[in-house]
Amino acid sequence: MKLAYLNLDKDQIKIKSRKIKLKIFREEDVDYNYLKWMKDSEICKYIKKANKNISINDLKLFVSTMYNSKDNFFFRILDIRTQKHIGNVRIGPINGENMSTAFGILIGDLDSHNKGYASDVFNLILQFCEKK
């Protein structure tokens, strides 16, 4: 991953495959469906931010923080066919010094589990990071 990510206009990022597209998560995209995922202990068993007491305002603050961060990218995962928000993926924090990052995928929509979406996201993120 090159340091070009520092100067990207996040709203201009376009990432998609045949099945999904990734769009930068904005504060106005936070909804009660996303809140429901984050309160579900089974869906979010590996998500640090999730808990039963999280509020819609907590999520809006988190999404806003990610949006304004230079070293994090937080995307909504959208089904191309239905435009339904089925999950999220985060890249970051990105360490420009040693050119490394962490990332996590959440497929929150239960109807979208076991359909290959996470594999598709993984491949798209890998391509995105290699280009940047």
Question: What can you tell me about this protein's structure?
Answer:
This protein is an alpha+beta fold and 132 residues long. It contains three helices and five strands, in the order ββααβββα. The protein has a five-stranded antiparallel sheet with strand order 1-2-3-4-5, with helices on both faces. The chain is globular. The protein starts with 14 loop residues before the first strand and ends with a helix.
Question: Topology of this protein?
Answer:
Layout: E1 15-16, E2 20-24, H1 32-39, H2 56-68, E3 73-79, E4 85-91, E5 103-107, H3 117-131
Antiparallel strand pairs: 1-2, 2-3, 3-4, 4-5
Shape: globular
CATH topology (level 3) name: Aminopeptidase
Number of strands: 5
Q: What is the ordering of alpha helices and beta strands?
A: EEHHEEEH
| CATH class descriptor | Alpha Beta
Short note summarizing the structure:
The protein is α+β, with helices and mostly antiparallel strands. The chain has helices at 32-39, 56-68, 117-131, and strands at residues 15-16, 20-24, 73-79, 85-91, 103-107.
Question: Which descriptors apply to this entry?
Answer:
single chain, 132 residues, alpha+beta, Aminopeptidase, five-stranded antiparallel sheet, 3 helices, 20% strand
